[in-house]
Amino acid sequence: AGATLLVVNGPDTISEFYGESEAGLTGIFAAATVLSPSVVFIDEIDAIAPSRDAHGHGGASSHTAAAGDGSGGSAAGEAAARVLTQLLTLMDGLHSSSSMGGSSNRHSSSSSPSGQVHKRQH
Prior knowledge:
The chain has about 120 residues and is α/β, with parallel strands linked by helices. The protein has helices spanning about 20-35, 60-65, 75-90; strands spanning about 5-10, 40-45, 100-105, 115-120. It has 3 helices and 4 strands. It has a 4-stranded mixed sheet, with helices on one face. Strand 1 (about 5-10), helix 1 (about 20-35) and strand 2 form a beta-alpha-beta unit. Helix 1 (about 20-35) packs parallel to helix 3 (about 75-90). The radius of gyration is 14 Å and the shape is globular. It starts with a strand and ends with a strand.
């Protein structure tokens, strides 16, 4: 009650230009801090944070396929790793009265049967 909801479409945060994706994520989380208490919800989070299969390659999302598989070794793979690192860093520093969640359309065997990711702060 009384919290601000920030809804983000994951694929919209991905940019082809160096550093823009990370800057966009930083701006979203900065807004969450200013508007605290807040909830950041990232739809299609797999566009930002692809899953890793048994071989360590990124997920099958069309957005991650276009940006590289996230496995490193290429400029696109390094960019995907930077964006994921930025997201995890921002989640770790999320203000204590805010929370973060995300959803994915990808079927997985994760502990969350609906493919949802949650981080809650109290």
